[in-house]
From TrEMBL, chain A:
Key words, A-Z: Cell membrane, Membrane, Transmembrane, Transmembrane helix
Topological category with respect to the lipid bilayer: Multi-pass membrane protein
GO CC, alphabetical: plasma membrane
Subcellular location: Cell membrane
Source organism of the structure: Virgibacillus chiguensis
Transmembrane region(s): 7-29, 41-62
Pfam families: PLDc_N
Name of the protein this chain belongs to: Phospholipase_D-nuclease N-terminal
Record has Lipid metabolism as a keyword: no
From TrEMBL, chain B:
Membrane-spanning intervals of the chain: 20-40, 71-92, 113-138, 150-172, 181-206, 228-250
Keywords: Membrane, Transmembrane, Transmembrane helix
PANTHER family xref list: ABC TRANSPORTER PERMEASE (PTHR43471)
Phylogenetic placement of the source organism: Bacteria, Bacillati, Bacillota, Bacilli, Bacillales
Protein name, as recorded: ABC-2 type transport system permease protein
Record-level Gene Ontology MF annotations: ABC-type transporter activity
GO cellular component terms listed in the entry, alphabetical order: plasma membrane
Entry annotated with the keyword Membrane: yes
Pfam families: ABC2_membrane_2
Domain of life: Bacteria
Source organism: Virgibacillus chiguensis
From TrEMBL, chain C:
SUPFAM superfamilies in UniProt: P-loop containing nucleoside triphosphate hydrolases (SSF52540)
Keywords of this entry: ATP-binding, Nucleotide-binding, Transport
Identification of the protein by name: ABC-2 type transport system ATP-binding protein
Organism from which the protein derives: Virgibacillus chiguensis
Keyword DNA-binding: no
Family matches, as InterPro entries: AAA+_ATPase, ABC_transporter-like_ATP-bd, ABC_transporter-like_CS, DrrA1/2-like_C, P-loop_NTPase
GO molecular function (one): ATP binding
Entry-linked CDD domains: ABC_DR_subfamily_A
ABC transporter domain sequence ranges: 4-229
UniProt family annotation: Belongs to the ABC transporter superfamily.
SMART domains (UniProt xref): AAA (SM00382)
Length: 67, 259, 302
């Protein structure tokens, strides 16, 4: 397992991780400000945090109240 | 008037953070597969090495294959994201009733639809182009060179397919007041066209769903085939017709809408 | 002089007419009440004039302005206005003004004025999503008049408001009358009676009465008897209704309203029976009734 951690060029992989982190942060900021969401608010917190990559996207598409 | 309507859409997409998350998601979709496939041999080797057993034959990928990985992600998840983010662009405003306060003002129905369409295109194309640039960058450092002009060609031809999807979504937005039905109908339509195209094969060679097939050929051969040319023309004509149909539908439905 | 004439206006939904054969000439600087019970076709009428609904038949003509989009001349407030909740009140007004044909600068200036007039300037930079119902109603009126229309139409503008809010809106409408024609719908006679100069009474989509309030008051002037009993108002209402000269009775709060063909005879009959049967009569009052009989007729027959 250590071999692989050494063989990966972190400069290459970093953007992948950074983008995911930004998505989670932006989703959480929006989640904090939102007065109400579609469905229970705490559930969306769990989705944003624990569903890798798609959690924040699901929140933006379905969790936010638009109008 | 068009400018006022358009600016409102851009501002709305900023306030609801679409301008942040859509480009980020498109970058992710574009670079995920090229990166994982690049490291796949290392990962498998380290896992397989422990077992000390089976030898796995891994295909080696060309730069063209790498670019096509991004394109194929866009064809599935990218289209899905576009459909879901555009499903309520007009229908949602009709459903909530906010459209009444807009259309009692002397607003042209045609310009209203065009402003919605253009604002959707601006967002989707910004995200798509940024995503393709990221894909191009990774392809060049991990797999080998693809020329910039070749990248532009891929963006142009594949962009036509995304333009087609956006326009279909706008069309269904003018037909129904339910965002869910818009999403369902848009996905159904694009999937239906793909299915019919693959069933009829050569007889539907110029179907817009074949754009990605010809793009792959273009990447390998470097030449724009006549099939690609004709498919491009057919796609542009179809997009124009669907857009006109949307404008016509909206003018008619809105005025004749029952209570 | 007329500003807008509507003739033979009709709207058919499936097989029923929501509005039928409506005709009216609108005079400038008048306040016109469109009155009728729920389902009489008030909203349909307003939406057709506003251009939100295509009439099945009939004409809507703004005099002197036949060639331009009539929405330029109209301000409209729906019964339950919905806004973009992500915009601030000020942003929404500026946007509405621009859609109404103002330049951005002009729209900003006019928005500031209207925010003051409607009393929501303190909340102008708050998201509309955080507005209360009353604030949304004021914002709704502001967006309707931002482009200085010739005709302002409001769908039940006071029915959802508390007494104070109602008073404020009615006063505002009276002021606006000096600048434009005001047409508003209501199902409450007293709202119409209070501020309007003209009245259109709708029932089941048909205009059953219309004209100047002054003339209508004269036309429908009758005398009515108001009775109040210690208890069991409904029970005595039936008794009174059974009397030969009584044409109509109505239970209103805890009084019984009586309208008769011959008020003098009816009075005799009621008093006689009250004595004979020892009715627990608390109050007996003879009053001039004006439009109520007309309105009751429309409501009861609906």
């Amino acid at each position: 397992m250590e071999d692989i951690l050494h063989s990966i060029n972190w400069a290459v992989v970093a953007p992948l991780i950074i983008i995911q982190v930004i998505l989670v942060i932006v989703a959480l900021i929006d989640w904090t400000k939102a007065k109400n969401t579609n469905g229970p608010k705490w559930l969306w917190f769990i989705i944003i945090i624990f569903l890798n990559i798609i959690g924040p996207i699901l929140y933006f598409l379905f969790g936010r109240r638009q109008q | 008037m068009m400018k006022v309507l358009f600016k409102k859409e851009v501002l709305e997409n900023w306030r609801n953070k679409k301008w942040i998350w859509v480009p980020l998601v498109f970058i992710l979709l574009a670079i995920m597969d090229p990166i994982t496939n690049y490291y796949l041999p290392d990962i498998l080797e380290s896992v397989g090495g422990l077992e000390g057993g089976a030898v796995i034959e891994l295909p080696t990928f060309s730069p063209a294959d790498a670019i096509m990985m991004s394109v194929s992600q866009y064809s599935t998840l990218g289209v899905l994201v576009i459909v879901l983010l555009s499903m309520g662009i007009i229908s949602g405003e009709r459903k909530s009733g906010v459209i009444e306060l807009v259309l009692v003002k002397p607003v042209s129905y045609t310009k209203f639809v065009l402003a919605k369409w253009l604002s959707l295109l601006l967002l989707v194309f910004a995200a798509f182009i940024i995503g393709m640039m990221a894909s191009w960058y990774y392809t060049n450092i991990l797999y080998g060179e693809i020329t910039f002009s070749m990248l532009l060609a891929v963006i142009f031809y594949y962009g036509l397919w995304l333009l087609f999807v956006c326009t279909v979504s706008i069309f269904f937005n003018t037909v129904t007041q339910s965002p869910g039905i818009v999403a369902f109908a848009t996905i159904g339509t694009t999937a239906g066209i793909s299915l019919v195209t693959s069933l009829l094969g050569i007889r539907l060679a110029w179907s817009p769903t074949n754009l990605s097939v010809y793009i792959q050929e273009l990447l390998v051969t470097g030449d724009v085939s006549s099939e690609l040319m004709y498919t491009t023309i057919i796609s542009i004509v179809l997009i124009a017709l669907i857009l006109l149909a949307s404008i016509y539908r909206f003018n008619r439905t809105f005025i004749r809408r029952s209570q | 002089m007329t500003i807008l004439s509507v003739s033979n206006l009709a709207k058919q939904f499936n097989n029923t007419y929501a509005v039928k054969d409506l005709a009216y000439q609108f005079t400038p600087h008048q306040c016109i009440a469109l009155i009728g019970p729920n389902g009489a076709g008030k909203t349909t009428t307003l939406q057709m004039i506003a251009g939100l609904l295509q009439p099945t038949s009939g004409e809507i003509i703004f005099d002197k302005h036949k060639s331009i989009d009539r929405r330029t001349l109209i301000g409209y407030l729906p019964q339950q206005p919905v806004f973009y909740s992500w915009m601030t009140g000020s942003e929404f007004l500026v946007y509405s003004g621009q859609l109404g044909g103002l330049t951005k600068t002009a729209s900003r200036k006019r928005s500031a004025e209207l925010l003051d007039i409607t009393g929501i300037s303190e909340a102008k930079n708050k998201r509309i999503g955080n507005y209360s119902g009353g604030m949304k109603q004021r914002l709704g009126i502001a967006q309707a008049i931002i482009h200085q229309p010739k005709l302002l139409m409001l769908d039940e503008p006071v029915s959802s408001l508390d007494p104070i809010g109602r008073r404020e809106v009615l006063t505002l409408l009276e002021q606006l009358k000096t600048e434009m024609t005001v047409l508003f719908s209501t199902h409450i006679l007293s709202d119409a009676d209070e501020i309007s100069d003209e009245l259109i009474l709708l029932r089941k989509g048909e205009m059953i009465e219309s004209g100047k309030m002054k003339d209508l008051r004269q036309k429908y002037q009758t005398t009515k008897i108001t009775l109040q009993f210690l208890e069991n108002q409904a029970f005595y209402q039936k008794k009174v209704a059974a009397l030969p000269h009584v044409t109509r009775t109505l239970l209103e709060r805890d009084t019984v309203q009586v309208i008769a063909t011959n008020i003098e005879t009816a009075r005799q009959e009621i008093l006689q029976q009250a004595v004979d049967e020892k009715w627990p009569l608390l109050a007996f009052k003879l009053e001039q009734a004006t439009l109520e009989e007309m309105f009751m007729k429309a409501v009861n027959d609906a």
